[in-house]
Amino acid sequence: MKLRDRMTLVFVLLNATLELIIFLLIFYFARQYTENEFYLRLQQRATIAAQTFLGEDELSIDIYEKIRNEHLHTLPDEHELIYPVSEDGVLDPSNIPVNYPLPKDFIERVIAHEYAEDQVGDTFYTGLFYHDNEGDFIVILSARDLYGMGKLLNLRKILMISFVISVTITYLLSRYLAKQALTPIQKIVQRVKEISVTNLHLRLVEQKSKDEIAELTTTFNNMLDRLETSFELQGNFVNNASHELRNPLTGILGQIEVGLNKKRTVPSYVSLLKGVEKEALRLDAMINGLLKLAQTDYDQQGLMESPLRMDEILLEVKHGIDIANPSNQIHLDFDQLPDDQSQLIVFGNERLLEVAFHNILHNACKFSDNNKVITRLLSYDNSLHVVISDEGIGIPSSELKNIFEPFFRGSNARAIEGFGFGLPLAHRIIKMHGGKLRVTSQVGKGTIVKVILPTAATPATIAKA
Fold it and tell me: How far is 439 from 419, CA to CA, in rounded Å?
């Protein structure tokens, strides 16, 4: 069933159920009122009849009959019965006409409660226990409420016709409203069918309203932006990876071919093997970089986090770089650390964060030829800022948008060894931890890398982790 038909059916059923309940309540209370009103009329007439036939110094029976016929109107099938009750409170059953369909136990209820009312078919019965100076009597008055039943029948017809008309109108309006509501979605579906891998540049028409359809359109367009960017990055990644992997393989195969071309001396073979080793190490470093990029995708699905002090992470990274590159000039500036030590704590994966900051600091040293690199740790509201500035070659402004793409290298950095893995890997790790990585640079003056990471919310959360 289509969504339009389902919405129409649900709305019609809900409206029909609600109206049916309301109409049934209206008819029920109208019937209760009509019956109570008629019982009251019968009770009043029974009282008048008892006073007329049994009371002393009252109107004569002839006057009562004249008044009833002229002013009270005789009720349809009206019958009045008055029976004496014995001293022990028992009515002789032989006094009740055989053809009079009196309800069972009606007399007992009248005697017990001095009043009773009942209905058999469309005939209403009212009974009074009347005390008179001549004794006790039971007055029974019965009649049919043709007028009230007629009103109820007319009301039922009106309610039934109103119900059918209302359901019909509700159905038509529901169909129209469902069509109006789903028309934008149908347009979205038609537009989405036109979008494929070959034309990811197409976008849905933005809605001017601020409803859920507009939100859906915006969200879908944002998803297409990400997909288009992802496809472009993937294409560039494959091309760059193929090119970069081919170079060391070509070098290895070329030197092997040279070595096999003719017999050579031992020193010559040693030189060839060193060349092969160099290219193999380069290939190994490139493959390790690719594996780290893939590992970040895996870790993002199940990142093992723990509370970590950012100053300790930077110290550990600095210690590792000092061992690998003793000539570095990295200076850690912790002069503006907060008094509250808990503001230095972030949630994250220690190994990945060390890899990210190692890559950033390693690049700062490499592209500045081991000139001074200053690393500042600053604390702001619910976030830590790590600002790393160097005095290196800088990055052209037109190329800053591509620095997070694997294998990308600045046009002024071709002569410096590397594969273009460090910064993209760091960016992905920082993003995994809910942080941001921003880069500003000027050619010939240096680069500033700012890493913003959220701090732990409360000490309770840290303890729990």
Answer: 19
